[in-house]
Amino acid sequence: MRVWIILLIYNLILPLILLGALPGYALKIVRRGNYGNAFGERFGFFSRKKRQILLNLDNPLWIHAVSVGEVNIAKKLILSIKRMDPTIPIVLSTTTPTGASIAHSSEASVIIYHPLDFLFVSTRVFDLISPRALILTEAEVWPNLVNKSVKRGVEVSLINARLSQRSKRRFKQFSFFTKPIFSLLSRVCVQQESDIKSWESMGVSRHKVFLTGSIKFDSEGINEPNNVAALKDLLNKLFGGKSKKVILAGSTHPGEESLIGKVHLELRDQFPDLYYLVAPRHVERRHDLVNELRNKGLNPVLRTELESQETESLDSYDCLVIDTTGELNAWYYASDIVVIGKSFLANGGQNPVEAIFANKPVLVGPNMQNFASLTSDLKANGGVIQVEDEFELIEKISEFLANPEIGVTLSQKANLALSLHKGASDRTAKLIIN
């Protein structure tokens, strides 16, 4: 099918899809409080100050990253680009408020909310930025924006390209629609060799597909965050100067906090110096979460309330709910054992790599569909433990606590397995700017 026909159908259907999604979007604004931030930017309307900044940028790169995971990829790529050519201006767009908050710590020249892919909106923003190249992260291929770039002679790169089994099935089912759009891409940077054929089957010519490794799994330049010492001091205050072993459940989804909390309570009978940290994926759930954990027999305190608490009252707490944004990576370094969320009571799983880079033993639940290849590789190399349920989770954590050397070996094997991706950021950056 010709591209112009596809775009015609797409532009007729897209407003209907967005109209149907409007109630859910409005609910997010109410629940999360900050989801409506820079609402105008999503339609291509910027403040006078930001508009002037965009107009003054000379031939910038435009990198789009949806949310937290993609923004972290973009940050690493930007560092590599800046090392190679510090004069290149960069516009970084993101979709979510959490993504935007993390993006502000990047080396990008300006941060914007990504415009909706309406034809007139994408055209307005494209003309304002006038980029030298467009870089899309993982799976964000917007037809109008990509077509506009190609028509203007601007290269479009898809970096850290990812195809889950679900996405692959969906794209193949609608290949008459997706293949012509994917064929417009100038290059696709894939994470592993098996991805090459997958993207060829999606309509991307072989000469456009490059094996770079995963930026997300690239340990090059990874250092311990600056705020780790402060977080450890906070824990020391919370523990009253006592030594404790910390289980951190990261990026959890509803129900998982209680499930892992129950595991913690079971283990605490045998290991009384055990402490539970939980970082929910969506911090707006914090108050409901505190009540839920209390109903399960725990006495949690919020991270945002901890510093205002009197030291004498801290002994009563046995659980810390991390309700801040952008600190999770540092909390991995301050913990002893990490359990990855969205892998027990939700499908998909969350990325375990940051915890591995922090040299912590990592356990995941049965549902790691979004990271199936990574989980398979790590398991094959003895670098991660995947459990089926809470009972097996209790068993494996008990082993780590009784024999710490098991966790050390697990962490070492995990980092060795990821070493194949070292330098992925630099390899990708060279392809884009050369």
* CATH architecture annotation of the largest domain: 3-Layer(aba) Sandwich
What is the total number of structural domains? Answer: 2
Instruction: Kindly report the CATH topology of the largest domain.
Output: Rossmann fold
What order do the strands of the largest sheet run in, or round the barrel if closed? 3-2-1-4-5-6-7
Q: How far is the N terminus from the C terminus?
A: 33 Å
Q: What is the oligomer described by this structure?
A: single chain
Would you identify the regions where 5 or more consecutive residues have pLDDT less than 50? none
Portion in strands: 5-15%
Total helix count?
A: 19
Task: Tell me the overall shape.
Answer: globular
Structural class: alpha/beta
Largest sheet: 7 strands, parallel
**Mean pLDDT level:** 92
**CATH class assignment of the largest domain:** Alpha Beta
Textual characterization of the structure:
The chain has helices at about 5-30, 50-55, 70-85, 95-105, 120-130, 145-150, 165-175, 175-180, 195-200, 230-240, 255-270, 285-295, 305, 330-335, 355, 370-380, 390-400, 405-420, 425-434; strands at about 60-65, 90-95, 110-115, 135, 155-160, 185-190, 210, 245-250, 275-280, 300, 320, 335-340, 360-365, 385. It has about 425 residues and is α/β, with parallel strands linked by helices. The protein folds into two domains: about 5-215, 3-Deoxy-D-manno-octulosonic-acid transferase, N-terminal domain (Rossmann fold); about 230-420, Glycogen Phosphorylase B (Rossmann fold, 3-Layer(aba) Sandwich). Strands 3-2-1-4-5-6-7 form a seven-stranded parallel beta sheet, sandwiched between helices. The protein has a seven-stranded parallel beta sheet with strand order 10-11-9-8-12-13-14. Helix 3 (about 70-85) packs across helix 19 (about 425-434). It is globular. The two termini are about 35 Å apart.
